[in-house]
Automatic annotation (TrEMBL):
Name assigned to this protein: Branched-chain amino acid ABC transporter permease
Claim: Transcription regulation is one of the keywords in the record: no
Bilayer topology: Multi-pass membrane protein
Keyword Cell membrane among UniProt keywords: yes
GO CC annotations, alphabetized: plasma membrane
One biological process term in Gene Ontology: L-valine transmembrane transport
UniProtKB keywords: Cell membrane, Membrane, Transmembrane, Transmembrane helix, Transport
Lineage: Bacteria, Bacillati, Bacillota, Bacilli, Lactobacillales
PANTHER family (alphabetical): INNER MEMBRANE PROTEIN YGAZ (PTHR34979)
């Protein structure tokens, strides 16, 4: 049963893996231009494993920022993961602490989105910690592999933006979000969904004018969650 759950988790991660392949190559190219070797690029993927955080890292390295500034900025960029992990822990109440840590440590925005999509569509009957391992680690492996490939090919593709590679992550988010929205529309009134989307949009746009984008995402998420609880029947 666990082997089947693992395969189902890997299968669910296929869209994420395809997206990671292109955006990972794009990051590898950027890392190469920053001066990172393929090995150093691999190490950033292995230990940081954050697309947005790794792109920020390269930008700060080019700016010759201090190590403390780099660490703090990458931390704030990924602060939203605390919220995602708090919610994910409630979806696996019978999982041990080590299982929860393993799931949370390798979970990304995309694997979290895939998890939410599966939960909305099929409920928690088809989602287990082993399923989540397959979802997480398949994406992790492809990300590490593609970033190294991009670093090696850095001199051959000096301008990935011209090929549209940098749009892959956005397209992947749109695909995941569309699936979630379709599932939500079957369970919630469209009026409530519209209110939540409006809250997220307005909060993010307003707060991003005075705080960083990462903190704006965090604030918009917390605000939308609060409103969602208030209007829930």
């Amino acid at each position: 049963m666990k082997g089947q759950d693992l395969r189902l988790g890997v299968r669910a991660a296929i869209p994420t893996m395809l997206g990671y392949l292109s955006i990972g190559i794009a990051f590898g190219i950027v890392a190469s231009e920053t001066g990172l070797s393929p090995l150093e690029t691999l190490l950033t993927s292995v230990f940081i494993y954050s697309g947005s955080g790794q792109f920020v890292l390269c930008a700060l390295l080019l700016a010759k920022a201090e190590l403390s500034s780099i660490a703090l900025t990458v931390f704030l960029t990924n602060l939203r993961h605390f919220l995602m992990n708090l919610h994910t822990a409630t979806l696996f109440p019978k999982a041990s602490l080590w299982q929860q840590l393993l799931i949370g440590s390798f979970m990304t925005d995309e694997s979290y989105g895939v998890l939410l999509g599966a939960e909305l569509k099929n409920g928690l009957t088809t989602v287990s910690p082993t399923w989540m391992y397959g979802n997480n680690f398949a994406s992790y492996f492809v990300w590490c592999l593609s970033t190294v490939l991009g670093a090696v090919l850095g001199n051959l593709l000096p301008n990935p933006a011209a090929l549209g590679i940098d749009f892959a992550l956005i397209a992947m988010f749109v695909a995941i979000f569309t699936g979630q929205l379709t599932s939500l529309a079957k369970r919630l009134p469209l009026k409530k969904i519209g209110v939540l989307l409006a809250v997220v949009t307005v909060t993010y746009l307003a707060s991003s004018m005075v705080i960083t984008g990462s903190l704006a995402v965090l604030l918009a998420t917390v605000t939308a969650c609060t409103v969602g609880v208030m209007i829930d029947d």
